[in-house]
Amino acid sequence: MEVILLERVAKLGQMGEVVRVKDGFARNYLLPKGKALRATQANKSKFETMKVELQVQNLAAKGEAEKVGLDAAKGFRFMQGRGCGHCRGTGYKGRKAIAEILQLNDEIRELIVAHAPVRLIKEAACRNGTRLLRDAALDMVRAGETSLQEINRVTFVA
Question: What is the pLDDT of residues 69-111, one digit of tens each?
């Protein structure tokens, strides 16, 4: 089945590209999630009218990314969920956990016992291999799983 991508889909293509995919993938994933339209003549003209709006949303998200200092903003297309009746207009379905797991070692234990500032504990944790919550969230943005506006809403921007 041929579909028009409404957003970047990993290993498939960028917004606006017409790609051929297996029927089941289109029917069960791309079409219900609003990531693509069937590549009919009517949908191609519909996409052309939507294209400007999608690009404006993309530019707004990119501007917000540059404001918070996201290095990947250059050359990356940020996407925004469109929303529907099932998601109450949010553009999201279900929930996705973002976690920061601190593995204790002797250095971190000593800092905690000594009531060291949080900044020192975070630096020691990063040296020990801990991925910070914001970094994990930004990876989800890069993967196209959520929007930058959503992670800015739920994670603290220093």
Answer: 555 445 555 556 666 666 666 666 677 788 888 889 999 999 9
Q: 1-94: which CATH number, 2.60.40.10, 3.40.109.10, 3.40.50.300, 3.40.5.10?
A: 3.40.5.10
Q: Whole-angstrom Cα distance, residue 93 to residue 64? A: 23
User: Is this model's pTM higher than 0.90 or not?
Assistant: no
| Rounded-to-integer distance, Cα 106 and Cα 102, Å | 13
Structure tokens belonging to residue 116: 């060291």
